[in-house]
Amino acid sequence: MSPPPRPPRSRSREHPRPVLGTDVPRAEGRAKVTGTARYAAEHLPPRLAHAWPVPATVASGRVTAVHDTEVLRLPGVVAVLSHENARRLATPDDPTLHVLQDPRVPHFGWYVAVVVAETLEAARAGALALRVTYETDPHDVELRPGHTGIYRPHDANGGNPTDRERGDFADAFATAPVRVDRTYRIAPLHNHPMEPHASVASWEAGRLVVHDSSQGTNAVRTALATLFGMPEEDITVHSPHVGGGFGSKGTPRPQPVLAALAALHVGRPVKLALPRRQLPAVVGHRAPTLHRVRLGAAEDGTLSALAHEIITHTSRIKEFVEQAAVPARVMYTSPHSRTTHRVLPLDVPSPSWMRAPGEAPGMFALESAMDELAEAAGIDPVELRVRNEPDAEPDSGRPFSSRHLVECLREGAERFGWHTRDPRPGVRREGRLLLGTGVAAATYPVLVSPSTAEATARPDGTYAVRINATDIGTGARTVLAQIAADALGVPLDRVALALGDSDLPRAPLAGGSSGTASWGWAVHQACTELLEALGGFDGSVPAEGLTAAADTTDLAGAGSPYARHAFGAHFAEVQVDTVTGEVRARRLLGHYAAGRILNSRTARSQFRGAMVMGLGMALTEGSSLDPASGAFVEADLAAYHVPACADTPDIAADWLDEEDPHLNPMGSKGIGEIGIVGTAAALANAVHHATGVRFRDLPLTPDKILAGLAGEGD
C-alpha cells in the first residue's frame, strides 16, 4: 500500500517561507557547544553511587568463585554484585541482557560482577582488585572457510531470506565470455561512539527511572519490564541527548540492567558508564565477513550471471547474521543469480547492528568485483554500471518507486572529473606517491515503522509536538520541528518539540535510516489533523489548548507494491606511498538520490560523516580476535584507528532533487547510512588504479600495501 499523496502545504496568514529543505541550524546546537545539553552520565541525583563492571578474562567456561571479601573492605566500596547475590531476572528475548544470573562465561568480556562504591575511583579500584576464578572450557574464535560448524540460518538480519536463486546460475556463469570469481574479506569492526554506553538508575516509590544512552527508550523500557517482571508504565527511560550510536545503542545493552540491579541492591541511585576498552565485547560489533563474488558477462559487460555468497560468525548465545548478500539482489540486471548466507557460531561476543549492516560489507565486495569485471571486459567502470541498470528490482520484480542511480553516476563523474582519468593502473606518480581514482555505487533500503505523535495548539499561538523520537546527533529535533512547522504553516519558532522520553507517545528507535521517515510521518499527520480541528474554532484556541494525536500503524505499517531504495555514487582519489605503504585519500565525492532532502545542512553533515566512517572501514579500522585469549586485541581508540581530522580529505556530498510520491508525506528517504555503503569500495578501487595491485582484504593498512607492492599478493 502506498502512502497518500502529499497534500498542498497550507500556510498561515503570515505566509512564512517554507522551512523544509532549508539549512536550518540545529535546535540544540548552542546547548551542546556550551555544555548545557545533559547526557545520560551527567545526571547526578542525591546519594548517587558509582558502579564499575568486571568482565570475564576467559573465553569459555564458568565462574567458580568471586572473592569479594577483601574488596568489600576497601575504602568507599559499598557492594559487590555477582551471580551469587544479584536479583533473579526473568529470561529476556535477548540473552546478552541476562547478566549476573549464572556462572557460565560464553565469551571473553562477559560481565561476571559489578562493584558499587561511593566514588567512581573507588568503584574502579574495587573492580581491579576483585579476584574471580574460573573453570575453563576449550574455545574457538576463528572464522574460516570449511569449518564443520558452518550452517544455513533460518534468515539473515532484518528477516531477509537466507538464500535466493533465480534462473540457472551455474550454467550461465560457466558459459559467460567474461568471468570474475573472487574472494574478499572484511575484519571485525566496532562502533565506538563518542559517548560511552552509560546509565543512571534509581528506584523511586516502586518506579524505576533510568537515564540511558540509547537509540530508543521504548525498547529499553520493554526489556527492563520483562527482566524485572513489572509493568512498563512503572518504568521511565530518558534519552534526551545521545552522543552517537551507529547501531551499538539500537537495542538495549547491559548497562541499564546492571545499573538497575545495583540500585535495587544498595537502595540508592547508581551510575554506570561502560569503560571504552570493554565496549567491543558487550555492545555488539560488525562481524567479520568472508565473501565470494562471481560475475559472468557478455563481452559488452552486460551481466548474465551474478553470485554473492558470504560466511560470517555469530556468538553461541545469540544468532545475528550480517545480511551482506542482500544488496546484490537489488543492484544490477542479472537473469541468473545466487545469493546465500552462512554463519558459524563461535566463542565470541554477540555481533549486532553497525551502520548499514549488510549493505556496507556487501557492497564493498560487490562493487570491488564490478571494478574487476570492468577491467576484465575493458569497459569504463561507470559505463559498466550504467549498462547493467535494471528496469525493476531484480530479486522481487517490483517496480522501483524511484531509481536515479544512473543520474548519480553521470553527474558525480562530471563533478569529479572522472572522464579525464587515464584508465591504465599504476601510471600516475608524484615522486614516491602513486595516484589513482575509483568509483562505486551505493544503495540502502527505505525503511519505515509505525509511530505515534501528538500536536497541541496553545492559546498564545505556539504549538507543542510530543513524540518519543531519539536524537542521536543527527539533528532529529530540528528536522521534526521543520516538518511540524511546514504542516502547520507557521514559523519554526512557534513549534516546541519534546522527545527522548518513554512517557511520550510511543515511537520506533533511531536506526536503519528510518527515524525521520517514521517519526516525521506521525508528526505530519498529527499536525494536519490539528489544523482540521482548529478549523472549527474560527481561529481561536480554547484556553486549555487543543490536541490531535496520530498513529501511523495502518499507513506506515502497510506494505508497498514498490521497491523503495536510496541510491548513490561514490568517487575517490587516493595517494599510495611506495616507501611507507600509507594510503591517504585526497578527495571523496558522494552524489545521492535520496528523495526530498528536508534540511540541507544536517543532510550534508550526515552524508559526509558516513563517508568518513567508510574511509575508516577502508583504510584504518579493523579488529582481530586473539585465538589464545578470545579477546578483541584492538579494544580502544589507541589501537582501533577511527579517522581523525588529519585523515579526512576534501569531502563533498550532494544530491539530486528526487521526487518520489510513494514514500511518506514528506517524500523523504533515509540518509544516515547510504554514505558509508560505497565509500570503502571506491577507495579500494582507487588504490588498485594507483598501484595496479588488487587488494581484497580490508582495512588497507601499510603492511598489506607493502606486501602487495612487493608482489606477495595478487
Could you outline the blueprint of secondary structure elements for this entry?
Blueprint: H1 29-34, E1 49-55, E2 61-67, H2 69-72, E3 77-82, E4 104-105, E5 111-117, H3 120-129, E6 131-136, E7 155-156, E8 160-161, E9 164-166, H4 169-174, E10 178-186, E11 198-204, E12 207-212, H5 217-228, E13 235-238, H6 254-266, E14 270-273, H7 279-282, E15 289-297, E16 303-315, E17 336-346, H8 359-377, H9 381-387, H10 405-416, E18 428-430, E19 433-445, E20 452-457, E21 463-466, H11 476-488, E22 495-498, H12 515-534, E23 546-551, H13 553-556, E24 565-577, E25 583-593, H14 600-619, E26 650-655, H15 674-677, H16 679-691, E27 697-698, H17 702-709
Parallel strand pairs: 1-14, 10-27, 12-13, 16-17, 21-22, 25-26
Antiparallel strand pairs: 1-5, 2-4, 2-6, 3-5, 7-8, 9-17, 10-15, 11-12, 11-14, 15-16, 18-19, 19-24, 20-21, 20-23, 24-25
Helix pairs in contact: 8-16, 11-12, 14-16
